[in-house]
User: What shape does this take?
Amino acid sequence: MNFLSTTLLLLLVLLAPATVVVRPAAAQSADDQFLAAREAARAGDRVRLERLAPALHGYELEPYVDYWLLVPDLKDADPAVVRAFLGRHENSYLAEKLRGDWLRLLARKQQWELFDAEYGRLLQPDQELTCHALQGRLARGDARALDDALPLWLSVLEPPESCYSVFEALIVDKRVLADAVWARIRRQFEANKIAAALYTMNYLPPSQTPERKLAQTVVDSPLPWLIRLPGDFSGNRMQRELAVLAIQRIARNEPSVAADQLERISASLRAGEKSWAWSQIARQAAQRHMPEAMAWYRQAGNAPLSDEVAEWKVRAALRVHDWASVRSTIESMSPALAAQPAWVYWLGRAYRAGGRLEEANALFGRIAGQPDFYGSLANDELGRPTMTPPKAPPASREELAQVAAIPAVQRAQAFFRLNLRTEGVREWGWALRGMSDRELLAASEIAVRAGNYDRAIAAADRTRSEHDYSLRYLAPYGDQVRPAARNQALDDAWVYGLMRQESRFVSSARSPVGASGLMQLMPATAKWVANKIGLKDFQQARVNDPETNL
Assistant: This one.
């Protein structure tokens, strides 16, 4: 090789970008063809989609092409064809989605035998399909269907269409009477599901059903309506219930005004009605850190509290060191809520304050060692040091290969490669379901190597026994972050913490309100900062560039 040739070769090597990975032309072509197939599916161009499909045989995302071909005709599809797709792609996100779509169609056509055969294979039935399944059981005279439907009455507050016939069956069978209807309406007002609450009023007995205009007035103008009520309305159930709903609406903005009004009309209300109204005022006061909050909670007595109202009662009690109320409120919580580490810890503190040391330590022992805030506090209570858990061994080559071969992981990686983040995140989340700690750590490492840092964190955060905090708390973009932090006299750990919280290191992240990039800068803020630091030729499009954003 002569000198000129050698020099040219050296220049080519030195000037070549280090991060460029050349993919085979066939693979690039497959990516392009898949994107074309996706556009054809979105445009409803079946002819073009069918023409592109054969070339994508064996491609990572081929199941999506099959799905796009099947879905438009799903209503009239041969069950054998649908089941063949489900069989080929069992336990995948697409199989779950297609099965759900098919079940909805089967329910509308009341093909309950076919529905039942597929419903049991659904991994995550939603509220709509749960109610469709109950519809089918009711249609066949299953006496236990209403027993299973009853818990939905106070939990499904904004129901899909399929639930209404189930709720109506509860009414007809007298499983739900007026007290339960008003209880549901109150719960819907608490959750600010007003349209759903107004619909629920249709289930009331005629003598207690307000006209729609009246109910809307209570929602929109609660204080003027309340002031116009007659002096004594104790004999009118509808007016009493509407009055406490009006109190709840007033309390959302002015708890003190609501308290004054409740005192004024108190003589017309029953004990349970007053208790609920006081609990609503107290909850709003607690959220505002008002000193009256606990006094108003005491006015509510032993009224049953929703989860959210109970949580705010504990917080209000903690502010005034009312350990007896902390204990009694947590003990009255639903089991699922009381089992959360925060409430386990605070119940332990309440027991300790009451001298019940053995019970307190047993509670602290349940959560001590967990890699979270309350686990660390429990360690302190037990006199144990809080330490970073032992670092798990890195994923082996075999573990990486096994996880990389999982079809859902391959599909997620393909979507990220194509800049289709929504689809990629969905497939990645599906892939992580049921993974062992070793598999999660391998998945996290795979995501790091691909530059998908948020997905790496999502995987590493799920480990239960084996942990690697270097994967949970990544520090990418070091060449840009550390010099930028030094220039502003900032600790780079602080900068990394902010980025992790704001964007999870997704440089293209954009919030619903318009904040962009690693540091989630609003457009006006970005422009102001650019002027402040003398960044020339700044354009809004550059906010997503990591170096500019930092």
User: Anything to note?
Assistant: The first helix runs from residue 3 to 15. Residues 1-28 have pLDDT under 50 and may be disordered. The CA atoms of residues 222 and 299 lie 22 Å apart.
